[in-house]
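Q: Predict the bound structure with iron/sulfur cluster.
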Amino acid sequence: MSEALASEIARLRACTACADLPLGPKPIFQLSPTARLLITSQAPGTKAHASGLPFDDPSGERLRDWLGLDREAFYDASRVAILPTGLCYPGRLPKGGDAPPRPGCAPLWHPRIVPLLPAVRLRLLVGGYAVRLVLGPKTRLEDAVRGYAEHLPRHFPLPHPSWRTLVWERRNPWFRSEVLPALRRAVATALAG
Ligand code: SF4
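A: Predicted complex:
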């Protein structure tokens, strides 16, 4: 672990910028300076908040299936980094569903952390918040996923692997037939060697 990254991780763990979070600040991430693959996702859910383990839920199972990685490979911090758009559980919306990631989180932490991950070869942008954060605020998620090849070799846009995506997948068979094989190839290449 580089001194600079260790120091930023210590600051991140102590972050209380969003004092009004319903379960309190508790950033969830997985970071190492040797990681080849960086996953920028949405925000942790209640299960990840409780366990401290990102994607320790059915969405995580779906994402691992998409990537062609088992739990051991996915949670190998020396090869895979996970830095969500909002690092703490954001709570629920009044009408149901998780609240969006805290908007100030990524602007505060990503510019400090991402440059300290020099071995990253591929960054997965998982869900609309991550896609708009990195590819621009006007980017349409489905357009970005369909046009994934334009964003390679550095970025790979993906939908969020929530249960809602199952319905979307059925309406968009190109995702499973075209995008997922390309995704598995890009992930294997990033992690190879
Ligand atoms: S969501 Fe981000 S900015 Fe807010 S307290 Fe957590 S780590 Fe800090």
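A: The first strand starts at residue 37 and ends at 40.
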